[in-house]
Fold this protein.
Amino acid sequence: MNYRDCLYNQRANLTLLRTRKNEITSGIRLSLTPRVLVFFYWIAMLFILLGGIYSMFTEHLIAGFFGMLFSLIGTRVMFELIMVAFKNNEYLRRIAENTGKPGVE
């Protein structure tokens, strides 16, 4: 084993340790955040549904229905955009990890 191979092995070991550390920390962050967002999504849907039903029975039936419908759709779109942002961050992290690897000689 020559000096160049020894440096390459050390660099590979350090990269492996960094990757494992990043997987652990980002895995915790990435697995927890979507679950929290799903929880908030269902809570928001429940409040919108209850508010829409209350509005339909106390005020105008049609206005309450359409308000509830558009609020449900808007909330869904908003949470989907947030999830896309988290997925983009995950994909960018994967690209950054793969571009840091040395090429085959």
In short: DSSP finds two helices and no strands in the chain. The chain has a mean pLDDT of 76. The two ends are 17 Å apart (CA to CA). Residues 3-99 form one domain.
